[in-house]
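Why this split exists: single-chain examples teach little about how molecules sit against one another. For that reason, every record in the complexes split bundles all components of an assembly together and asks for one structure covering all of them. Below is a record exactly as it appears in the raw files.
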Amino acid sequence: MSEKYVQTLERSLDVLEVLAQAEEPLGVTEIGNRISLHKSTVHRILQTLCHRGYVEKKKDHERYQLGIKIIELGIRFFNDLEIRKVAAPVLSDLVKVLDEVAHLVLPDEGEIVYIDRAESSQVVSMHSKVGRRAPMHCTAVGKALLSTMPEEEVRHILEQKGMTSYTPNTITDIDTLLVELRQIKATKISIEKEENEIGIICLGTPIFDYSGQAIGAISVSGPASRIQEKGITRIGEEMKKSGERISANLGFDFYKRS
Amino acid sequence: MSEKYVQTLERSLDVLEVLAQAEEPLGVTEIGNRISLHKSTVHRILQTLCHRGYVEKKKDHERYQLGIKIIELGIRFFNDLEIRKVAAPVLSDLVKVLDEVAHLVLPDEGEIVYIDRAESSQVVSMHSKVGRRAPMHCTAVGKALLSTMPEEEVRHILEQKGMTSYTPNTITDIDTLLVELRQIKATKISIEKEENEIGIICLGTPIFDYSGQAIGAISVSGPASRIQEKGITRIGEEMKKSGERISANLGFDFYKRS
DNA sequence: AACGAAGTTTCACATATTAAAACCGATTGA
DNA sequence: TCAATCGGTTTTAATATGTGAAACTTCGTT
């Protein structure tokens, strides 16, 4: 009798993920080592993936990397994401007002995933966070989302994922965080002061859909000094208004709920 | 003896692609029908895909759709794409000057894939083409790319893909197109007047990398009347300049080649 | 309450996948 | 120039693994 999952498929996904993380083309043997698979198995999986366009063989003829088909799937999904379509213009406006970077994130498996980004004028976009994951306990968006969940669920996530310390400011105590979350639940504004990355302050607010469920969050972030200068309160208010606009456009009824 | 490719993986990719095309969540049986697979097989593949986050089961508990992990892979790749990073700011500038939509496309398997888009001010972005495929013979970007290939390869592509007619203006004769391509090769500007979609005019120009290979193309498009009004020549020149800037930033040496 | 439609689980069988080993081709160093 | 090394690719025999039929479960409908 068989396993619950399809082994071959899992292995193939391992190959894809290893390629995605690598940022540079990898060889068959290298991939095999990383996921502990025989090179000939890896080879056949790669052949299939290539054949279908999900992986490409660099012309230097020895290395494999993700192929264009991956974008097709991913971007199509991205484009169709309702919350993204609704949020994009609002974030764009928000950035015009504050001239700081704004992000849209979605929760997934107790973590957050950066989905979209609106940035000020010509700021060269560094390595964008879009597509990346981050923990909830040390990000403004994460805390905004946690603040909408029942305490029990919050505890579960924090216990399961741990509360890794990234800076001296990272909150590593569950109860301390729970207190803060209650505050956030009331104000709908979360603040993260260098808890994730030294020198960066980030504010977040949750996004609700028609059912009142928090399905994402937006944030504004920038260098600590500049953010302080512009005024945390003002930024918070502007951002909160943007969040409310997005939620409203998703059918959230403030009148009924507020 | 065994096939060249991994059957299970191919079937799994079929499942993913069917979900990607569907635009709406599908049930197990429905998917099975579309790709002619037994529903229990489909079910097990879906379980695995869900387990890994590439597919999600809607809470209405009966339908499956692409999951957030797909975005993670796709967007990461997207963000890392060198040509995209280089083209984005240039396209953004181009849009500011012309106030029409600009696209970046890559060639793949004799077709083009829309990769990125820069759009004028607040034009609500309709259903974006990003992530979609289109034929080469009836798009400005496609013709721009074809113009850089040897005639033999062009013939091969056109024969293999056919020259489907989308409007009365679509060029459906190989030789007619070949003549036009020679022209485009010289000017580096391709024009497509309602050959793909009635009412839309599109101009394109190829992008070259350090090796002199055309690796993509950019375009500007808009309603026929407005484009005419703004002047095809002017738009073409501006766009061509942008293309040259992108190519130069990718290391293409105009001095050596031009 | 019975029926039908769809999802899920079980299970015996045979096929498709695997890993070892052989093969090939390029690069390196003597 | 030749031998050695290191990948990538191909072959093959053994069997673990994925498959589809059928049974089972829900759920919604008549």
